[in-house]
């Protein structure tokens, strides 16, 4: 994957987040933002604002663009699903750059995730380990997204559907389920005939009855507007 | 296809040289100051010195337009040097005059490359004076809005002009190289940002919530002898930043810049000028559309469209009238797109719905079909209604000169259509779900003529695409029809439109109070 830059441990007077909020339109902070992308990769953290700020600077001065950094930003953005971060980044990346092979792959991966075709996604991802595996936590992040969509949709999901979505099978899946039962309130029951059925925790999206209670509530700040009248 | 939809700037704006020729043909003498102009600048200058906002507004909105129509239809106003003697050579007034001078030139003639650069210089001087706090005048909101609006417009126009490299003369290219700082994107953004910061408008709006400061209540004016210029320019600059970021395709950051303005509250200062009101909501709605927050976009488009529908007639004489009508039409097109992707018609005000049906009813039916013709319609409406996207970087002069003024637009269009394609099967699912209260997955698969895993994917996609996640991770449902799956069975949940009694009563309590206050104020003779 080309050069791997060491994250330099220099005493910095400002954090990158501060730099952005003080002066977001400053070409001089570009190297700091690039280092910050690498730092996000190694420390498994994420800052959409910082990354958009960097893509913006690349947009202003295309000759300073680093393809490798852009690739990392995009992988990080995929990991932020279900948030629309990946599109937000693409909106700022010139079309001719998007034609690069590794970006085409990432766009295909994003497409599979956006259309919930997890089988194809995991197949494609396994063919492109060199792109995605440089970013630690990639698999777990996608699994978390898969579980998010499943939880919006299913009250009870067949084991096989879950297995395909998170790409875990057999004993590993048993272990994973055990963990979820202990920590996330999942319940396993016998399905009729074939395989297990997993009950996912209820929320207002897989159990729409839960939503009604909030539908007609009034935010406090709206009520405060009539306080002067009531007093 | 897109090009036919008015994406190009009107030819007259860009046709370099025509303006000059016209000016010469008509014998324009920049040093000749007609008596009516002498009177005009003299009075305007006096009213500004006396902080007579009402009179300033009358002259700015009324007299300036009338004189422009009568005497400067096809030529620029007299040069600033020629009018300076009639206004004590006042530095700030001359900057303001020149700003109007360029604005008039851009609107009625076509700026030469040098004039574009000079106008940039004038904005730099003007904003620097404002930022250094030397300005102590009180100007109408309309005027202050027009400055920010025009500043962003001229930036956009410059980017479009610069990106058309193919037919540039050597002189033009030399000029662009020489003045590479003119309309530089960093400069533009930093001016807007500096105005926001120096004005401390964000803190002012914060403090206002706690009752420590008045801004909205006085429409930004200062009744204690202070100046409103920096404060209000700072305020409108937040809208300017939203717009610039939308032009760059950075919707997330754009919305973030607008955050200090609570657009769900009625009566914000941005609504005090119709142009600002429309620009704010147009870009706010567009950004939300691109972020897939359709319900938010629909709600705000509906609100502003009903507002324009009801107040249109009062703006007929305004110089902005045509612009109002154009943005009105564009927002109907955007609303048609939103509703095709997210059929929540019940969020739309009745009059707006009627208008929408008239304008786009038939197209919207065809957009539901997701065939090639439907894509063509999405393309058409998007191209007609989207902002004029820009490429902010300077051309590479060493390479063969090509036009790149359409690049940014093409990219945004392509990504938008990509999104539409990802949602192509959702309207089919929607149709079936509406017919059942429960339906087995296998049966739905048969109806949709796909296999079971595919239906499961489509259903997951439906959930994902109809549940927007905002920047702090909160999930908001945009779904008109909702469902959940229990093993192999889909349970459809009828979406009842819950009447919001709470809001309704709140509004009327406030209204009643207002009326009672009004009546108290009326003294019987």
UniProtKB/TrEMBL annotation, chain A:
Membrane-crossing segments per the record: none
GO CC annotation terms, alphabetical: eukaryotic 43S preinitiation complex; eukaryotic 48S preinitiation complex; eukaryotic translation initiation factor 3 complex
Q: Write out the function statement from the record.
A: Component of the eukaryotic translation initiation factor 3 (eIF-3) complex, which is involved in protein synthesis of a specialized repertoire of mRNAs and, together with other initiation factors, stimulates binding of mRNA and methionyl-tRNAi to the 40S ribosome. The eIF-3 complex specifically targets and initiates translation of a subset of mRNAs involved in cell proliferation.
Q: Where in the cell is it found?
A: Cytoplasm
Q: Which SUPFAM superfamilies does the entry mention?
A: ARM repeat, Winged helix' DNA-binding domain
Protein name listed in UniProt: Eukaryotic translation initiation factor 3 subunit K
Please name the InterPro entries in this protein's record: ARM-type_fold, CSN8_PSD8_EIF3K, eIF3k, PCI_dom, Transl_init_fac_sub12_N_euk, WH-like_DNA-bd_sf, WH_DNA-bd_sf
**Signal peptide span per the entry?**
none
Question: Any idea where the PCI domain is?
Answer: 46-205
What Pfam families does this protein map onto?
Answer: CSN8_PSD8_EIF3K
Give any GO molecular function from the UniProt entry. translation initiation factor activity
Keyword vocabulary terms for this entry: Cytoplasm, Initiation factor, Protein biosynthesis
Assembly with partners or alone: Component of the eukaryotic translation initiation factor 3 (eIF-3) complex.
Native source species? Thalictrum thalictroides
Tell whether Protein biosynthesis is among the UniProt keywords.
yes
One GO term under biological process is: regulation of translational initiation
Which family does this protein fall into?
Answer: Belongs to the eIF-3 subunit K family.
TrEMBL record, chain B:
On whether Phosphoprotein is a keyword of this UniProt record, the answer is no
The Gene Ontology biological process annotation of the record reads:
formation of cytoplasmic translation initiation complex
User: Which PROSITE patterns has this protein been placed in?
Assistant: PCI
Q: Does the keyword Signal apply?
A: no
What is an example of a Pfam family matching this protein?
Paf67
Give the molecular function GO annotations. Answer: translation initiation factor activity
InterPro entries for the chain: eIF3l, PCI_dom
- Localization per record: Cytoplasm
The GO cellular component terms are: eukaryotic 43S preinitiation complex; eukaryotic 48S preinitiation complex; eukaryotic translation initiation factor 3 complex
Every PCI domain range? 300-499
Q: Which UniProt keywords apply?
A: Cytoplasm, Initiation factor, Protein biosynthesis
Q: How does it assemble?
A: Component of the eukaryotic translation initiation factor 3 (eIF-3) complex.
Q: Which family does it belong to?
A: Belongs to the eIF-3 subunit L family.
Q: What does this protein do?
A: Component of the eukaryotic translation initiation factor 3 (eIF-3) complex, which is involved in protein synthesis of a specialized repertoire of mRNAs and, together with other initiation factors, stimulates binding of mRNA and methionyl-tRNAi to the 40S ribosome. The eIF-3 complex specifically targets and initiates translation of a subset of mRNAs involved in cell proliferation.
This protein is called Eukaryotic translation initiation factor 3 subunit L
Identify the taxonomic lineage of the organism of origin.
Answer: Eukaryota, Viridiplantae, Streptophyta, Embryophyta, Tracheophyta
